[in-house]
């Protein structure tokens, strides 16, 4: 297999890793206000992701940096095209990243409610906006011969892009609900399950509509890819299993569903990395957007050496904090 | 217009980001030292201080992390022409930074923060050291990338784009080797001065004297060798820059015409433009510029007019002189304050040796205010090196004026710049408020945190 394709796959793995891991952080970030009825319960919800959210977010940084290193033209065109959308993503990342650390640092209700909303809104905006961006890659944006974007902010809001954003948001919420059910006990867990059941039903409808739309956008016949079929099955399973005591399986199913969603966009995209709606000849592809052979070899060596180590210690961190959290006795909130 | 705005945005967000980075690198290292002291001596005072300064560290890390995201995104967002041109070289260290440093730093910070009662003491100690190493590694990779812009090495041009062809050359680039040492030491100086300021504040009030005398001591013991080495590393870096970026150093002295031997002025007025080259230098120190720039007593320094003529011959018509006023005054801010901090640190060392540290009111008062100096020095240092590279974005290869995104309009950058400035003001207010609050609150919080989770109970609610 040629190096360009290998790096496309590696970058796909980073994006999938980001959504599988940070997806539940987004879900918890939004749902903590719904599932936690009082301050203590909200803190419990937030602390379920406490030790990990930061490490999970690094998958985004690495995905972006790997695009820069392996496909500089893809990185340059995509980031400059999505300009104002990314400004919003960054603000959402500020709001949410800081809220974890700052929320609990003062006791006033206003301070806590403020950061709580920052966390919830930030967590909802990121999958929505990144989803719009991903949908646009496949749907196509006005890109000229020099690979520069020629549209404005509103041209980014394609119907398919918006649908992709809504799909990723819904799947993140589902993933967050299965995660909370897995990580908590008592009432919080019950509420997470109830939320998961409801979100699961919405997610099935949204996901099905999105898969059909994707098939229309690709236009290559009506046969769905296996990723799409298994993705849909996973959504159904997650929505059903979250009612039962199989919390771990429900979480695995929602994780698989979100991985399949990112996976199917990238599979449909290949060998393009960005479609030009102006003219197919201006598409960015794995070949015309890639860095040279030598830097790709260097990066391959680095990734092969470091990724197993990263997976090992991140996995260990998940193992260390595997116990469920429950609300401490009322007095100590 | 779009190009200027993109520059303003880059300068603003980078300077802001670098308020938090050195605090993180410096404090992570010092907190690791405090925890090591606790591990070795089992003295609970050290544990309290680890907790106390650990909280300050975490408040800072939060902003350092989120503002770092802007840095990674804006190469593509605002500088797409640059990104296309250099991605084959510049992207690699950024990706390595993520893989080798950010994963390490963030994962182990989570383990450290939530692991107080879960992990064996030895493993928990290893976590904070992993955080410290991760933060230093991330500075390493970013400096590799930055040094390549100052002095491009290990690449060839393929189809008009720079492509890496020798990765080792990036690691032994002299600009990187000395630049990285300079930044690491600057970060340690910053961490020490923050720790010293907080400790001195308590010592002056005679509160928790037992505890804060220890941290003042740790801060000073690390600070003294660091600042002494730093001054000579800075000197070395100056020589390297004279070799590869002579205009940067000539502009830092407003040296319009070649000289030998060359003196260094303490201050000057006028003479900042090509059209007005009459400098009024006040207090000239003979030979000092020769020593700083060439490492020899009477070495020659080429003047800006001569460099301009050379560059025009080499690269065609254009202005190859960086902003002289910025160069001149950032050099003085950085070096002048650096020298003062060294004297101050030596004074502290002497007091420590005499056992009078906690009773010297003047020194303690100065220590509190000295916390401002590293931020001024760090900012001045980056202005000196980045503004001194102009008009180039990559020295000798690509000009800044040609590097921005053609598809991004001035209006869009106005929007993003305003949004970032507003967001950064809010973040700064929250950060400063919390830093002061937790600095002043004493040890009650650190003690309460430590007591919150008796072993075997449900895990504590850290956030």
Overall geometry of chain A: globular
Q: Roughly what is the average pLDDT of chain A, rounded to an integer?
A: 91
Spans of chain B of at least 5 consecutive residues whose pLDDT stays below 50 are: 454-458
> Order of helices and strands of chain A, N to C?
HHHHHHHHHHEEH
Lateral strand order in the biggest sheet of chain B: 1-2
> What percentage of amino acids of chain B are in beta strands?
5-15%
In total, the number of strands of chain B is: 6
Task: Please supply descriptive tags for the structure shown above.
heterodimer, A: 333 residues, mainly alpha, two-stranded antiparallel sheet, 2 strands, 75% helix, 2% strand, globular, B: 463 residues, two-stranded antiparallel ribbon, 6 strands
Helices and strands, with pairings:
The complex is a heterodimer of chains A (333) and B (463).
Chain A: H1 3-35, H2 39-49, H3 53-70, H4 72-81, H5 83-103, H6 109-139, H7 159-183, H8 186-218, H9 226-241, H10 247-269, E1 272-274, E2 284-285, H11 293-320
Antiparallel strand pairs in A: 1-2
Helix pairs in contact in A: 1-2, 1-3, 1-6, 1-7, 1-10, 3-4, 5-6, 6-7, 6-10, 7-8, 7-10, 8-9, 9-10
Chain B: H1 2-41, H2 44-78, H3 80-114, H4 121-150, E1 155-158, E2 161-164, H5 167-172, H6 174-205, H7 209-244, H8 246-252, E3 264-269, E4 280-285, H9 288-294, H10 304-315, H11 324-354, H12 361-369, H13 372-387, E5 392-394, E6 398-399, H14 410-440, H15 444-451
Antiparallel strand pairs in B: 1-2, 3-4, 5-6
Walk me through what this model shows.
The complex is a heterodimer of chains A (333) and B (463). With 333 residues, chain A is an all-alpha fold. Helix content of chain A is 75%, strand content 2%. Chain A has helices at 3-35, 39-49, 53-70, 72-81, 83-103, 109-139, 159-183, 186-218, 226-241, 247-269, 293-320; strands at 272-274, 284-285. A two-stranded antiparallel sheet of chain A has the order 1-2. The longest helix of chain A is centred in the first third of the chain and has 33 residues, at 3-35. Chain A is globular, with a radius of gyration of 20 Å. The model of chain B is unreliable at 454-458 (pLDDT under 50). Chain B has a two-stranded antiparallel sheet. In chain B, helix 1 packs antiparallel against helix 4 (121-150), helix 7 crosses helix 8 (246-252) and helix 11 runs antiparallel to helix 13 (372-387). Chain B has helices spanning 2-41, 44-78, 80-114, 121-150, 167-172, 174-205, 209-244, 246-252, 288-294, 304-315, 324-354, 361-369, 372-387, 410-440, 444-451; strands spanning 155-158, 161-164, 264-269, 280-285, 392-394, 398-399. Chain B has 15 helices and 6 strands. Chain B has 463 residues and is mainly alpha-helical. Chain B is 72% helix and 5% strand. At the A-B interface, helix 2, helix 3, helix 4, helix 5 and helix 11 of A face helix 2, helix 3, strand 2 and helix 14 of B.
């Amino acid at each position: 297999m040629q190096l360009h394709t290998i790096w496309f796959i590696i970058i796909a793995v980073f994006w999938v890793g980001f959504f599988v891991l940070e997806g539940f952080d987004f879900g918890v970030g939004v749902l903590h206000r719904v599932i936690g009825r009082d301050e203590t319960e909200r803190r419990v919800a937030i602390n379920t992701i406490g030790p990990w959210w930061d490490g999970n977010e690094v998958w985004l940084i690495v995905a972006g940096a790997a695009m820069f290193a392996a496909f500089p033209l893809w990185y340059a065109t995509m980031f400059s095209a999505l300009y104002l959308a990314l400004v919003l993503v960054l603000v959402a990342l500020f709001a949410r990243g800081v809220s974890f650390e700052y929320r609990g640092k003062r006791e006033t209700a206003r301070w806590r409610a403020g950061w709580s909303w920052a966390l919830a809104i930030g967590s909802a905006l990121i999958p929505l906006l990144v989803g719009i961006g991903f949908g646009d890659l496949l749907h196509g944006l006005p890109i000229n011969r020099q690979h520069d974007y020629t549209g404005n902010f509103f041209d980014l809001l394609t119907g398919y892009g918006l649908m992709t954003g809504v799909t990723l948001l819904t799947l993140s919420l589902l993933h967050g609900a299965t995660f909370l059910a897995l990580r908590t006990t008592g009432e919080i867990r019950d509420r997470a399950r109830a939320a998961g059941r409801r979100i699961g039903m919405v997610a099935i409808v949204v996901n099905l509509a999105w898969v059909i739309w994707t098939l229309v956008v690709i236009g290559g016949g009506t046969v769905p890819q296996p990723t799409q079929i298994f993705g849909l099955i996973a959504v159904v399973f997650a929505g059903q299993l979250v009612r039962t005591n199989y919390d771990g399986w429900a979480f695995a199913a929602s994780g698989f569903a979100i991985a399949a969603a990112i996976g199917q966009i990238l599979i449909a995209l290949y060998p393009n990395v960005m479609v030009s709606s102006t003219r197919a000849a201006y598409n960015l592809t794995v070949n015309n957007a890639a860095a040279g052979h030598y830097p790709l070899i260097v990066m391959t060596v680095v990734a092969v050496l470091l990724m197993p180590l990263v997976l090992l210690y991140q996995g260990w961190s998940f193992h260390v904090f595997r116990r469920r959290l429950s609300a401490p006795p009322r007095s100590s909130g | 217009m779009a190009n200027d705005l993109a520059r303003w945005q880059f300068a603003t967000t980078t300077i802001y980001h670098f308020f938090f980075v050195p605090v993180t690198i410096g404090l992570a290292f010092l907190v690791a030292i405090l925890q090591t002291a606790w591990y070795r001596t089992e003295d609970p005072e050290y544990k309290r201080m680890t907790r106390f300064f650990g909280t300050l560290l975490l408040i800072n890390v939060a902003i350092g992390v989120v503002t770092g995201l802007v840095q990674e995104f804006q190469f593509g967002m605002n500088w797409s022409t640059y990104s296309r041109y250099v991605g084959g070289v510049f992207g690699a260290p950024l990706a390595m930074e993520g893989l080798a440093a950010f994963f390490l730093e963030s994962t182990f910070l989570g383990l450290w923060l939530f692991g107080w009662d879960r992990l064996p003491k030895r493993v928990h100690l290893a976590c904070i050291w992993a955080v410290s190493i991760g933060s230093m590694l991330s500075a390493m990779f970013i400096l590799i990338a930055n040094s390549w812009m100052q002095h491009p090495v290990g690449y060839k041009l393929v189809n008009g784009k720079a492509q890496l062809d020798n990765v080792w050359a990036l690691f032994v680039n002299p600009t990187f080797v000395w630049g990285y040492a300079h930044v690491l030491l600057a970060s340690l100086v910053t961490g020490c001065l923050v720790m010293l300021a907080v400790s001195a504040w308590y010592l002056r009030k005679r509160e928790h004297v037992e505890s804060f005398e220890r941290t003042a001591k740790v801060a000073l013991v690390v600070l003294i060798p660091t600042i002494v080495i730093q001054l000579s590393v800075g000197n070395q870096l100056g020589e390297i820059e004279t070799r590869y970026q002579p205009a940067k150093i000539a502009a830092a002295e407003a040296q319009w015409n070649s000289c030998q031997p060359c003196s260094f002025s303490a201050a000057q007025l006028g003479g900042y433009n090509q059209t007005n080259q009459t400098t009024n230098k006040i207090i000239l120190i003979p030979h000092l510029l020769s020593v700083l720039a060439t490492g020899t007593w009477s070495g020659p320094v080429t003047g800006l007019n001569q460099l301009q003529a050379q560059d025009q011959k080499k690269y065609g018509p254009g202005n190859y002189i960086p902003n002289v006023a910025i160069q001149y005054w950032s050099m003085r801010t950085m070096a002048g304050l650096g020298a003062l901090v060294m004297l101050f640190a030596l004074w502290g060392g002497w007091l420590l040796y005499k056992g009078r540290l906690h009773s010297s009111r003047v020194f303690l008062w100065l220590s509190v205010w000295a916390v401002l100096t590293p931020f001024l020095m760090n900012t001045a240092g980056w202005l000196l090196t980045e503004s001194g590279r102009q008009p180039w974005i990559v020295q000798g290869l690509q000009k800044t004026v040609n590097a921005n995104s053609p598809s991004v309009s001035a209006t869009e950058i106005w929007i993003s710049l305003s949004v970032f400035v507003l967001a950064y003001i809010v973040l700064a207010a929250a950060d400063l408020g919390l830093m002061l609050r937790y600095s002043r609150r004493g040890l009650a919080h650190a003690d309460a945190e430590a007591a919150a989770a008796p072993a075997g109970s449900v895990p504590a609610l850290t956030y």
